[in-house]
Amino acid sequence: MDAAASEVEQRELPVTMAQHGVRLDKALVDLVPEFSRSYLQQLLEQGAVQLNHQPAIKAATKVKFGDVIAVEMRPTAQSQSFKPEAMDLDVVFEDAHLLVVNKPAGLVVHPAPGNWQGTLLNGLLAHHAGATAVPRAGIVHRLDKDTSGLMVVAKDRQTMDALVALIARRDVSRRYLALAHKPWKGAEMQKVDAPIGRDPRNRLRMAVVDLAQHPGKEARTDITCWDSTDAHCLVHCKLHTGRTHQIRVHMLSLGHPLVADALYGGAQAGGMERQALHAFRLSFVHPVTGENLELAAEPPADFLAAVEKLGLRYNPH
User: Fold this and answer.
1) What is the pLDDT of residue 138?
2) Model-level pTM?
3) Which residues on adjacent β-strands are paired with residue 283?
4) From the candidates 25, 67, 90, 144, which is the catalytic residue?
């Protein structure tokens, strides 16, 4: 028997009166509550479910009292994704309650289709034993795959809940550096207060939306120009909210798509091959010790090289 076959668990599940007349997928969730709906849906799609000894692939099939559902509990990409993977994490702060990592560009934060392994979550599961006991290994906020920089991660449930509350109250200061196209015009510091929702014309993108016509959430960013040429600008961004793609969308709304941000129309420049965005400062009051944490991470080499090639000046002070 090969390794894959040895991992298959056979289950026979009699349909009770409580499931009589319900959809097959709903009955499965009721009868196998320890597994997620999405995992059980994958088993249906793979032909791993039989109803009364006949293959069952239609989730909407209605079951009856006395039916027997047979399930092969097979490993799937998703069910196998939450595994520890040794990873060289750049940890800039750590104590018994939390850690702050400097995420490199290209590292996906959480397992998802196309990236079931090799994520920051996998690395955290290997980094400390307590990661398995908290949801999402303690991840309380995310950075896009191609955005580099600082992220805070909880090491226990109490700290995780406290960090989530801090972020909700906007008591965690997150500051970014971005390289963008076109010269900066107008006031050196501009406050962008523009709601963000799914782009009605392209579901892969977010956009500034009119809340009277489209769903969305308020979004606020303070953007300060640090330097500008006749073709590009280097800006400092302070988040007041944490919407998906917030800085990328707000910069585009000002007419400054980020360098190498293909999704939002930003062409490559200065050697940058990923969106030029770096989370360089993170500050908050430690939710357990009360310590004021002020953490910083220099931009990575590709970002600094692009600053120089584009004729801009970077002075973190």
Assistant:
1) 93
2) 0.79
3) 173, 294
4) 144
